[in-house]
Structures
1.
Amino acid sequence: MERQDDGGEPVGSLTQHDSAEEPGSPPLACEPTGSLQQEEPAMMKRSDHYLPVPGEEKNLDGDFANANTGGNVSIPLKNLYADDGSPLHPRLGPYFSDGRRRVDYVLAYHIQKPSSIRRRSFGDNNFVRRLRRSLSMRSSRAPLQPKEDPEIAAQEHRTDYHEDDKRFRREEFEENLLEMGLELEKDEESKITGIGFLKIHAPWNVLCREAEFMKLKMPTKKVYEVKQGSNVVEKIRLFIHKVTAPLHPKVDANRPQSIKPLSHPFSREKQHLFDLSDRDKFFDSKTRSSIVYEVLKRTRCTRAKYSMGITSLLANGVYTSAYPLHDGDIEGVNAEPNDRKLLYEEWASYSVFYKYQPIGLIRKYFGEKVGLYFAWLGVYTQMLIPAAIVGVIVFLYGCATVDDNIPSMEICDPRNNITMCPLCDRACSYWKLVTACGTARASHLFDNPATVFFSIFMALWAVLFMEHWKRRQMRLNYIWDLTGFGEEEEDHNRAEYEFRVMQKTLRHEHSTPKGEKVKLTCTDRLPAYLTTVAMMCFMIAVTFAIAFGVILYRISIKAALHMSSYPAARSNIRATVKTTAAIINLIVIIILDEIYASIARWLTTLEVPKTDKSFEERLIFKTFILKFVNAFTPIVYLAFFRGRLVGRPGNYLYVVGSYRMEECAHAGCLMELCIQLCITMLGKQLIQNNLFEIGIPKLKKLLQRRKSELDSKQEEELNKTLHRHEKDHILCPFIGLSPEYMEMIIQFGMVTLFVASFPLAPLFALLNNIIEIRLDAKKFVMELRRPIAAKAKDIGIWYNLLRGLSKVAVIVNAFVIAFTSDFIPRLVYQYTYSPDGSMHGFVNHTLSYFNVSDFQLNTDPLEPMHLGYKVEICRYKDYREPPWSSTPYELSKEFWAILAARLAFVIVFQNVVMLMSDFVDWLIPDIPKDISLQMHKEKILMVELFMKEEQGKRLAARDNHNQDNYTSPSSANQSPPQPRSRPISHVNSSS
């Protein structure tokens, strides 16, 4: 039976908040031209009309049994508004205008409001009344009727037909949502000009139905005690947990940690198993929004030539955005306690940077996928602590032993009057080896025996990190009741895929056999695949070309500085060239990163993947390849190619005409590699990750504030009057976790791949991540719309990328130690060529002789007397025969002996570290023992629960049967028998 308002009209669920218009119809009030308008007093609340809802309705009394009666249960207007027209429930939170039904999801769309209609709506009150009456008499399911006033009809004919088509599609989609049982309310008079909102509420019966379809695991009344393991590992873990108690956030303080409810997929037939004492809190806001999103994806709009779900409607601009609402405000005196505010206080504040993250609350508010990202980021940051400590110790060891390093002491000794060959043609002259003293001493800080130990340590650290994360992930799966969750859930097709299938169906309408499902094949995607391969190769070639351009810059600027007449420029040539080249590389990397991200998305869109998961994985793979090549090309060149493609004096290698390939300093290229890594890593983290993430949102807010004509006080007052859905619409849309993961994966590569040349990399990564966690937290809580709560058991393709990087890191570090550093030549000299088993004479051993008369034409120095005497023999770093030997300038036997030692070291290092890694992997089980025991215990308890329930049903059936047997025929004719079955509550309590 329908309730009626004072005017006798039915009140239903599709409500037009502050408006009585149909979707897309012209407004009845004038709007200012600004982006946000001042709130006008609600004077016409009583005249608002609420359209009836077909299908099932929400029972506000919360009785599930009566919810299926099919009646339209409504809220009368006299319960919503006082006599003066003001709302009785003036709540700006996530609620309908009645202040009781929660908004579970919001769809936003563009509305067109012609200026002539706005002017007329103010002047002609009779016309307004007539129009409202005509609109209110139409059912929401009635077809579009012609307008009463021809002027309005003519005005609408002058509007864009494409907008009309969008409006028709919205109407059909909303009708289908009503048939699905959802409750809708429109707000086309919001303070955001040109934007209308459709607020969606899922009543109890819809939530129960969809939760059963989605097989959502919900906590039952049955709880059990989680007993901690008694082995040594668990005792150590408990001890650490007690010691670090001050570091834990103050959330879930009232919930005992040792008690866990038994979870089971929700079933309407087994409602008595679940605690439904407070139905408003049984499904939390995250679960409600995910349920509504599933309904939106499944609901179709067939007005187009192909069926469209919400993803297609968004892609075609029918709706501009769709998002769940945040729980409430986080600042202000009137902000009610909510999970969002708690997250802001205990997670998104820099003052709690030393505390652990409230992962459980993050998952409760944002969903499992976001919770897993922050859990992974926390584990990664935590594991960086020992790596950073060991890296600092290695660096300090290099600092402590720099004065005892014999090779650098020999270079710095002025008594060793060693004249070196020019570093470039013509402009460069001969130089003394003693001038490389500073570089040699600095190189020892990063190139010492401890570096080899640190490389092995970091390879094992990567394996331990992966194993630790797998165990942590398994523990979270158990705590979050994801152990039975699989990927078999339906993944809806993307809008672009459906559109392409529709086009293919129309093209082959007559040739396709009936009943055969049309789909895109590899042949259909072949042009896109060829385009992807060609573009990827082209982009990688562009990266190589830019890196080569920086090499030419280094060569030319070095020659230019040597020819400079300024003493300051000539004195710091090496430092100037290294630093400026590294900064140029950094700027190029940051610019190309943004370009490559857009190109990767465009290429993935061309391929038309079928599902969102397929699209995301393909996009991640392309973006990772391009960004990885972009970030590491200059580093790989410095590590493995610079100084090895030089040639020798008198026979140098030239590129692009007269550009002579550059050499390494005498102490090796490791110092330049270290400078490049340091600037790239710090620059990417400070500029790209932190400055961009902080600066760009602030810049956008500043530009919005300048465009707005309101001052700060007016804007603050206006913000207080905005509804929750309006506040959230102003926030930035959530674009996914891929950018967050990507920057961390690139950082992981910086930490592990070339850690042999830069032991301080884990320390810089640790400091960055401590800021990054709180920065991301603040962004998620304050600046982004609330994401869809997506379930996930793991971090997906990112784990495979991490595992691949950790494997490659072993090989890369082996080659860095063997070929980039002087570790192997020092060992070979000490144990093979040294007369006394020490490092004395090592520098002289590494230098070959060159007769200056053998220079090629026009390559000898312009100033041969630069040192004050005529040079006849100069030295260069290489293992070659002297000019007076029978085979002058040929590679010597020492070169081949050292090359054999380098290759042997690579093989031994790689196999030893891989073997140790596999042993660690085998030693540590993926599933913690206590978790496997608890999972087994849960299965036993679940079986017992259902056995008790089955036993209760049998007893109830037996009592019912006995009662039927003892009932007399006369009493059976008078009244139906009353069974003496036990009530459900009794059965439930016994279970």
2.
Amino acid sequence: MQTLQIIKMPQISNLRLLISSANHPRILSPLTPKPPPSLSHLFRLKQPKSHTHNPRFLFAAFSSYSRKPRNIEQPSSLRRRSSSKADNKGKMAMEEKGPTAESVGFNKRRAEGKDKNDGKKNLQLKVRKLNPVNTISYVQILGTGMDTQDTAPSVLLFFDKQRFIFNAGEGLQRFCTEHKIKLSKIDHIFLSRVCSETAGGLPGLLLTLAGMGEEGMSVNLWGPSDLKYLVDAMKSFIPNAAMVHARSFGPTVGSVDVSTASSGTSDDLYVPINDEVVKISAVLLRPRYSKVSDTTKEGSSELDDPLVGVNHLAENHLVRRMHSTAEFALKPGDLSVVYICELPEIKGKFDPKKAAALGLRPGPKYRELQLGNSVQSDRQDIMVHPSDVLGPSVPGPIVLVVDCPTPSHLQELSSIHSLTPYYSYPSEESKEMCKKVDCVIHLSPASVTCSTEYQQWMSRFGEAQHIMAGHQPKNIEIPILKSSARIASRLNYLCPQFFPAPGFWSLPQLKSLSSVSKTPSEFSSCQVTAENLLKFHLRPYAQLGLDRSGIPEITSRPKIIEELISEIPEISDASERITQMLHDNNVTNGGSATMQANKVMIEEPWLHETALPSCLKGVTREDVEIVLLGTGSSQPSKYRNVSSIFVNLFSKGSILLDCGEGTLGQLKRRFGIEGADEAVKGLRCIWISHIHADHHTGLARILALQRDLLNETPHEPLIVVGPRQLKRFLDAYQKLEDLDMQFLDCRHTTEASLKTFESTGDKDVSESACVPSDQKNGSTLFAKGSRMESYWKRPGSPVDAAAAFPLLKTLKEILREAGLEALISFPVIHCPQAYGAVLKAADRTNSTGKKIPGWKIVYSGDTRPCPELVEASRGATVLIHEATFEDGMVEEAIARNHSTTQEAIEVGDSAGAYRIILTHFSQRYPKIPVFDETHMHKTCIAFDMMSVNLADLPMLPRVLPYLKLLFRDEMIADESDDIEAATAAI
């Protein structure tokens, strides 16, 4: 049986007492002897001359006396214990079942990357028994970008026993979760292009499928030949490459040896799927460029076609320009695909009278004839053939999925001979030769589909139904995530200062923007705008055509608020109280407003005042704002996206701390489409805590967008700071599309490394210079030479410190321009190379010439409580700490190397943090986590889109009672297989 090695550490509440008594040597004298060897290697900290006055030494010494590490079997109690909570009907107050005074520990095997949940599974593709006579079949629009316009839509091809998905952009999982579409039923995923827009949600989806059940699941992945680059990149962080059963088709990209299913010209027809249920063919599109003068240099990326704008450069960068009739070298991202889905012909209606006349008895032979098989007559010595008893057959429905991303691809699309059989011709003679297309789903952008050339090409399909799914502006006011939008509206009504209204443009405003593609004033009768869950029925044949019955209804904000007031009448008074309380705080900046606020707020005896830090005196609303873009763990859910924190420095730019899937969509929900573009352009740096997918898989989409937005603007590539493993992913992914970034290892941004960098100046540096000797000799949590050194080890070459030196200089200058003194990484206990971060603002001078210290924001990343985190959080203005589990789930927290709510608060209290924001909640808690308010006097629960301005920090904990009121009737979700699978990966 798999065991977990649990390392025990002292309860932090005990630590607080020790630290507070640091100036009393008599109290601490029992801790001064040399620690026993059992755990001393774990926290080897540099010991000053006077041990008794160093809190870091106190933590190390005290933890050394805890019990020795021991192996224990994974208890069954690690599974969620929900019955007692569910029976409580969602009450927030709970019994004291938190960690006892015994210990706080961590799972050493998981921290080293050896936990069974990180191990390899021999994932097998599921073999399903197909149903050749499908009773139901349709295509359906899933997750089209709608209000955020940030990702390509997906298309579901549904059969009784088979499911196919075309494209898997960011947010697909979240959308399917909300609408109860089981992705576990998916057999094949097809990509129309290989880029962040069409495949951003693929890594998270594969990990979710792999974590389902005991054995996990896998799917077939298909795409053009540059799919190889995406698969290679995903292997750097997806533990089991076997989960990616990827097959590609088409010509080799560049000179790289890409394995293809077949070879040929761009006009070849590839057939990935051909069974009794469906035949799926693929036609490749390559961009075709206008003829250029002989003086044009080979390799130029300038495009003659003015229609190819910034939004299309990602698909065409670095393409070699040649004559229009000549071949050119394909680059990754050039290839696009048209998929043709053909259902088998529909057999004619079975005539039982004819069958009886031919000597057949009713029974199984009737079924065989309907399946197209001949049978022996029961009463006559003859063979009965299907044509003897069936009426005339009807050709099977045909659906095309078309992705033509640029006008350059359109030139190729118009001339592809493989599509000729699917065009409709007016003459009766030619009509017999062509295949009738019933539906064409256009993933092409509106800038292409609105062109005269594209409209003419569409007309070749006669009366086929055209579904326009390429970011139609008409959908700008329709939220793609209805449940999340509803919660956001309720929170905004209660407390607009912490939960601002979404930044969307209305449709009239949007039409006035020059940057938005215009659509025809009227579609023809055969063209409709795609909407989420719009269906086109293929079978039964009698229902062939559009079905709008499943499209989500649009609920207006006034309607949502009306329902809220009806449900919780006292919420109106609560909203007014919060408004008055925050107004008083703004007037006095947290000073004398206390007594006024207390007159109107809910009485909570545990709320008491904390002295206002000097860094907040005179702070303005234009200094810094913390926007919690994603506050859930493991995988996106209906109400919470995965981890991402946007630190808005306003005119000085911004910084992202983690960048989980869907981060761009969240930015657009918060700031609007154009506002999000400005936010992405203003990014100074992106910092990633660790390699788990819920913390970094939105990175490529953000980087690709910034690359396009700044394409014609002189700029330095964005610096991404992250663990060394992340560089492997980015290096591999950049073979697919240029991300215009520079990478800096977190190891080179630790406090010790930065001090060495400062002392080195412009001198030549080596690896030993950027990784200081005190680090090497064991002065940090993951000390070189100790057993914990294995946490650092990973195949591949380490980042060259000499290359890091100029990047550190660049980063220092970027931070200085942003008004920041430092961005510091520190190791934490979660998985190999996991970090937390410190953002420290530069000191400032007020109007009287007095020096005001800069604020300090600390982000824990994912971690167990550990001394490095306590030390880094000392004196923090804001500590943003993960609180994945409720207090009663300590064993689960230890097994997963996460923290409980109380443990997170204890870290902040021990370090003297002014305010604590709890985030990264398990998906067990769909709307609000379980918490015990008795120890939350300086703490608040985070929600997606919550925006905390430094000027509002004094009032932050006072909002908590009102949030409790808003969610007072919410039940804790019962555990499901999906949640169980989700928690296995966090």
3.
Amino acid sequence: MAVHTPRYSDTIMFLNNDGDSSLRKPHKRLQLVFRAIYFVAFLTKKRISRNTLVLSQLLSNPSYVIDIESINDHEKEPFHGINKEALAKLVREKDINSLLQFGGVRQVVEILESDQKEGIRLHENELKQRKETFGSNIYEKPPAKSFLSFIIEAFKDTTIIILLVCAVLSLGFGIKQHGPKEGWYDGGSIIVAVFLVLAVSSISNFKQSRQFLKLSDESKDIKVEVVRDGRRQEVSIFDIVVGDVVCLKIGDQTPADGLFLDGHSLQVDESSMTGESDHVQINETQNPFLACGTKVMDGYGHMLVTSVGMNNAWGQMMSTILTNDKNEQTPLQHRLNKLTKYIGNVGLLVAFLVLVTLMIRYFTGHTENDIGQKEFIGSKTKADDIMNSLVRIIAAAVTIIVVAIPEGLPLAVTLTLAYSMRRMMLDHAMVRKLSACETMGSATTICTDKTGTLTLNQMQVTEFLLGTDMIMTTSQIAPEVLELLQEAAGLNTTGDVYTPPSGPPEICGGPTEKAILSWSTTTLEVNFNELKREYRILHVAVFNSQKKRSGVLVTKNSTGKVHTHWKGAAEMILAMCSTYYVKGGIVAPIDHEGRKEFDLKIKYMASKSLRCIAFAYKESNAESQILEETGLTLLGLVGLKDPCRPGVKEAVESCRAAGVSIKMITGDNIFTAKSIAFECGILQPGEDLNIAVIEGPTFRNYSKEERMEIVEKIRVMARSSPFDKLLMVECLKQKGHVVAVTGDGTNDAPALKAADIGLSMGIQGTEVAKESSDIVILDDNFNTVVTVLKWGRCVYNNIQKFIQFQLTVNVAALVINFVAAASSGEVPLTAVQLLWVNLIMDTLGALALATERPSSDLMNKKPVGRTETLITGVMWRNLLAQALYQVTVLLILQFKGSAIFHVNKKVKDTLIFNTFVLCQVFNEFNARNLEKKNIFHGILKNRLFVGIVGMTILLQVIMVEFLRRFADTERLNWMQWAACIGISSLSWPIGWIIKCIPVSNK
């Protein structure tokens, strides 16, 4: 190594094999490395910490070059010289030795120009610089399926291939027989029609796949709490940058790789990365490494982000996984596939019979051409004519298969799900799993939370009791008690208060924490900055839904006194206390009578729908490292009010009318739970509360037989744990119910997974809960849960409408073509015409019927449950009546049409085709409502339906009047058009009459 007199253009070079032999000794080289680093730091007036990452490279790479001039030129450029790969490798490999070489976690904080307490500077240029240097927190996704791939998939259909082969052969023989000018019409028309059908279905599928991808991206855009400029704030996970300080709590998912800064009892589940189910303890000394994608199972803390996006293992893994399972099939789609296969087999049989019939009639000389001559006259018939006729017969048979196979059913499901998912997003519900859309329509029971779902989730402290006295101002509280209350409220919390230079304090945390912190700021006059300076937290017991309390062990820096503080459900904390403070600051014992009086106070507050939280403390030994749980002194009780949401009572009544049972499962005590349940309408006056209301421990201690007997009668479960909720879900499912569950916590994940439909809360829900759910309720509102129920029923109902519509067309087309082929040796509907009907039926019909929005009528029906048949008696009644009418009318036109209208065969066939299409248009109106006679109710609200019907009629006019050679039609006069419309419109009065016939909907 050569070190010259300080000149910025000099280069310090570490040589491997050249130079002084003494420099080849490891300890000599290491000394020179340190000298060079200090030399560079002196020249550039930088702290040594900024070059620690460069030092790590020098130690690991024996031929490393430092250009002093380059360093000087980049003196003002942030993060110059930091190796992001070395930083990413640090957490990825959990390399504690490399971390020590960097100087430890604190040193990495300085290297990344962050601050453990303040976070990074909230400056647009700095955020941009960090993204440019270290990358963004996004993953490289596999390329989405192209439009061409959808076209190729559509071409894989065997019947389409056969039809195209027949069309090509017909095209060849036609041109050979009639010349290029006239001979291309038959084959060319089929080719154009096939390509039109393929194009429409491909475009539709392509657009829906894009829609699902968009919804998938939205579901992954979660909010993360970070500290920037000393303020806790929520940002999108995609906006996380290296150097950010992220706040972690139970249920969160780590948004990037990082290092543990501070916190208490932090445990994470790394099974998503390692496959190991055991929870891993995170601490500052032995294991400060937090990998992206892991879940926080206990405790809380702060994390320094060290690598994002594709620079961490999670990003590399996610880039190899499809972001959206476009091949996901719902249970209904599986049932429809079976139905499609069955109908397809029937269509195949009919097509085969038509093929055989037409072949026999052709070769026995019973078919005639356009001028009335026999088409086959033995050996006199040309080979080209025979082949052309055979191709035409095969094409007719294959076209019957194309029409018979209801491939529109899967398309209808896709359209319905895509449309409903998009609309549900506007109604504050994000669907994560397709199957949830339809399953929710079958729900018979909803197990719902209270806080934030039935209530507004806007907690406020409305009452404070010191001992048994109501306190209105701090002047009524003794100074020593006030100081203890300030400690209890300000230190035993996972929330945070930021006091800006001007304006009100900004409070972060959960609803309960925010309410207590707001009360402590305004009423107790807590100075949080001073409180944090004066006290040091020694140990934390994090709140969990089992114990329903949280605790903290703190010491005061000036006196050295150690205090244990507990906060939680009033009856739980009261059971830990043996004394309490009275108004004047005197400590009094809690005797039997005193405990009963406190119980009455708690019950009275609960009866007013107040959540009762108690504070208790104990002075501990200076060397104590544990939180004592007995012999505590009660500091006071606060009552938090969370009013019911407007409209909840009406929503509950709507569910009752729909045959859906509502069960409220809450962690609050039984009195608060009953009060809210009556307010929301879950409990009705006159109900036997001894059966309808139960506590979690009581329910779990029942025998299995006792639980199964009582589970359907329960309306409210208070003081319940997540295990109690899971137990109730399992019991209800065993009784045959389709169960929907709402949850927000990590511990709710088992119940959310076990339920038929898991609904997580978007505001207060943890990422673990959201990941375990099928639908995310974005506004935590029970009204939205009811909206999801309504949409679920709408999805099921829309699909039933389309099934009825399509099967009517299938039955009519198959019967007409088969009877006509068997009797006259020809099919009245040509290949092109049947493909056009197929296009109307599958694509336009699906689009029209799949986009019906939910109506209030859906909530007047009982849930379909698990065993309801897909095609009900009502549907069979409607479709058979319409199909019978269409077959009757069209067969009359087939055999008597020429005589009735005094027209030739070509015009008669056009009349049949036109009437058949218009019958489907009119029948679309009938299909809008399976049971109601008024088929026009709310039709103007669905502009898409009206638009599609109008477009179908317009295209039919163009087909008949202007594309005569393509569609093999003749122009019709206004009298003939009126006749077609009149005949088709009779399907409306027929539908009205048929709906008067009572049929079991089973």
